[in-house]
Design brief:
The structure is a homodimer of 509-residue chains. Chain A is of the alpha+beta class and 509 residues long. The first copy, chain A, is built from 15 helices and 23 strands. The two termini of chain A are 44 Å apart. Chains A and B meet through β2, α3, β3, β4 and β5 of A and β2, α3, β3, β4 and β5 of B. Chains A, B: It is an enzyme of class 6 (ligase).
Chain lengths: 509, 509
């Protein structure tokens, strides 16, 4: 058993710690900078977020992941209810006929659709698809429900599972065959209202990433090639993983325009008594968000959780010395948990007697808990507790009377620090370029490339073709709303034509 | 537009009301006592709970249903979290091999399992099942996670969709091919703890039905024939629908014993260092609960919602007279909504100008809102509001200053009244019988039959066979925990052997 003093380091003194780790297989085998892919798998499994399942591309979400999902959902659901979104649940299944109604849409999703063809031992009359997304599930009924301008806006949201039977590189949270999401589907009388909502929702997505997950994102618009299949335009929040040099789409808010309205005949009688076609949006964020957070903050000790989404914000660990008053130490720990819980802080006690304090330190570091509190005989005598930060390992002894105040302060500091650190790392990767040579150099250098572009679809196709390779081709990530100055005469890095905007380019997940 | 006085009745004066209804097709075409099946379909559709979907047996749950589901979920999820249940999400899919591991279990579910055999245009290597329930999805991993007695109890819950591709009589909420539920799966070191939890959960289910949905239920144990496929014993809460004379299983809490533990090799090292087999439970309630509530309380005007689960508890309708101060009336209505909302009461304003007050009365009656508040010029002058109860139509004028207090009181009274009324109706259907002739007479008379039984499986099979017919065979519903006295010498109504218990018998959903 390690001592209070010795336990000041992360898991007791060097040698002792190694023994404990070896004994329990608690350490990480991979380093984030050496083998990012294996490191990621190890973190999500060892932190008990994920269990691999016996069907490839399907994963078990354990409480350490689901509790984060519930915290995000609590925030987002309350926000969209303020925007008058109503909860719905539409079926998992859709007929082939309806699924194929919007041509671009089905072209985008067809290769990934899972089909049910049998029940029990009988063949179904016709195959039935499992929703890859619910536009075609919902919109025939929107057509039925909407008659007059008084039925607008119609605002539906559902929390559900969707299935996209992808075959490339399944990765927990990031790319899985079934995932959880919310999908909002809204209908308006005019484009202005639709446009406005697209951005309201995008701002909520930014808040999920930046305020909750402490992950910096760029808001922007997708290119024509990358927009939602069948939609008018797509906005997104885009994150970036410096270790792999890949962009990752965080969430999307689409304006569908009137394409689906045409196909599904969704019209209304306007105030002048004329039939008019509606304007529609759809938008979603998924459990992928958790994976982006893991990739952004995790380190060689495991997960690092932003306090706002940590299922346990403070873990309290008794450090009973030999001959110390263990009852008093346990009492002080229980009192600290109680005091913090009463103050609305998610604190928990690790009172397990079959593990050493050092082992517990390692385990809770692996699980990414923002603050550890250690209470030993010396702390008891001095009416203090020792607080250790997960994000940077710093330790501080604080008087027990200041517990709530200091913990609250530190949790806020960690939340800000994680975001600022991630933002600095991300910003350091942004490479503004102007020529093709600079572009390929930056791509090889794992940069988040900001390039002047002519915004022509053919040029994006061409860039994709020219950068094809083992690591995947480069493509546009988004055209950020926050545009640097574009002096007249600036040319497209790829085509040499006049550039019309700055866009982010890179490889992506 | 109807007047304040005329509007005292449900929807204005007789003639006027009929005209409005005809014009808007708002009335109910069927009566509960005349054609229960059509009445039920009409209520769930017209109240905007359900939309029929183009795949048979699948239904769209609209906000008026989903908001009830969310209220039930909020209660239940908080309660099971107090019992230390943790949120999980396991995959929708399960391989054929694993699904078939527990023989009795798969025999019970096989005919209803939906199979995915294709993705995109490719055939899958092997068909994959969609979960009809998640025992076989979860338990291989329980085996992996549980090593020592310290890993117990393990307590998992997930909120999700499941699919049972039934072919008999699809009915919204009651019998659908996809439904929403929670499924709890727990693992204990011994039978005592498992037994105890079975009843803790059953009590929560009773509370959902009796305290929230105001539906009286009987707690009891299922017969061997009716228990969960593969389990040790099943407890349930059973409701009864007097109109059809059918019992309906409200929710089930199963002790699985050690059957699944054997098949999936779920063992632990106990405190003595020996390998021991775990004890397991599983338990679930579904969106069916909403259907039972609709059937129990609905009337010829539509839905009747218990206040505790009503998405809108109080609807406030301005009744502007000709020449009246409509601005002042609207202001009084808005003030009432605000005051009630501030007090935590779910109140809403129907300010639509294109509908008459009478039409609105009918629509909100159709939707089952517990209280209607009318505010017209006379109410304004007298500083009062008129409150109309949905459950019994009574009206009362109360001073505006007493608004919150009176509304709160009335909502409580309605909640109690709905339960007591339903309980009286249900109790009046209970027919204690002792002979076969009494049994068949009571069955024809749509009774909830309480019969002394020998508790032999062969006898239940025999009763089923002898009562087969168009309406379906009779079977045991449950053996209620609350047992009447069973004098020695009492014989089984069906076999003439010694009776060992009183059981509920009847047709069922």
């Amino acid at each position: 058993m390690s001592t209070n003093k010795g336990a000041g380091g992360a898991g007791g003194g060097g040698k002792k710690k190694k023994e404990v780790k070896k004994e329990t297989k608690l350490g990480m085998a991979y380093k984030k900078d050496d083998n990012f892919g294996e490191w990621y798998s190890e973190v999500v499994v060892n932190s008990e977020m994920i269990e691999y399942y016996d069907i490839s591309g399907c994963y078990i979400l354990r409480p350490w992941a689901m509790e984060i999902w519930e915290l995000l959902k609590e925030f987002f659901d309350a926000e969209i209810k303020k925007l008058k979104l109503k909860p719905y649940y539409f079926p998992l299944f859709v007929t082939e006929n309806v699924l194929q109604k919007e041509k671009d849409h089905i072209e985008g999703f067809a290769p990934e659709v899972a089909w049910v063809t049998k029940s029990g031992k009988s063949d179904l009359e016709a195959p039935i698809a499992i929703r890859p997304t619910s536009e075609t599930v919902m919109y025939p009924y929107f057509s039925k429900w909407i008659r007059s301008h008084r039925d607008l806006p119609l605002k539906c949201n559902q929390w559900c599972n969707v299935v996209r039977w992808e075959f490339s590189n399944p990765t927990p949270f990031i790319r899985s065959r079934e995932f959880l999401w919310q999908e909002g589907h809204t209908v308006f009388a005019n484009k202005e209202e639709a446009d406005e909502e697209v951005l309201q929702i995008l701002e909520l997505y930014r808040r999920i990433y930046e305020e909750f997950l402490a992950v910096p994102v760029s808001k922007g618009r997708k290119s024509e090639m990358e927009k939602f299949a069948g939609g008018l335009y797509t906005t997104s929040v885009e994150a970036f993983i410096p270790n792999t040099g890949r962009g990752i789409q965080g969430a999307t808010s689409h304006c569908l325009g009137q394409n689906f309205a045409k196909m599904f005949d969704i019209t209304f009688e306007n105030e002048k008594g004329e039939r008019s076609m509606v304007w529609q949006n759809s938008w979603a964020y998924t459990t992928r968000s958790i994976g982006v957070m893991v990739m952004t903050h995790g380190d060689d000790k495991g997960l690092v959780l932003p306090p706002k989404v940590a299922p346990v914000q403070v873990i309290i660990i008794p450090v009973p010395f030999k001959d110390a008053d263990t009852t008093a130490i346990k009492g002080a720990c229980e009192s600290a948990v109680y005091t913090l819980n009463q103050a609305g802080i998610r604190a928990d006690l690790d009172a397990r007697e079959n593990y050493s304090p050092g082992w517990k330190y390692s385990q809770w570091e692996m699980k990414g808990v923002p603050l550890r509190i250690e209470i030993g005989p010396k702390d008891l005598a001095n009416k203090q507790v020792r607080i250790v930060r997960r994000d940077n390992g710093t330790k501080v002894d604080i008087p027990s009377t200041d517990l709530v105040e200091q913990v609250r302060l530190l949790l806020n500091v960690i939340q800000v620090n994680l975001f600022e650190t991630a933002k600095q790392k991300r910003d350091a990767c942004i490479a503004p370029i102007s020529t093709w040579d600079e572009f390929t150099a930056a791509l090889n250098d794992k940069k988040l490339i900001l390039a002047p572009w002519c915004d022509e679809e053919e040029v994006e196709k061409d860039v994709k073709a020219r950068t094809k390779g083992e690591l995947g081709a480069a493509k546009t990530l988004c055209t950020p709303f926050d545009q640097p100055d574009l002096p007249s005469g600036t040319v497209c890095f790829a085509s040499g034509k006049a550039a019309t905007k700055w866009s982010f380019w890179g490889r992506s997940y």
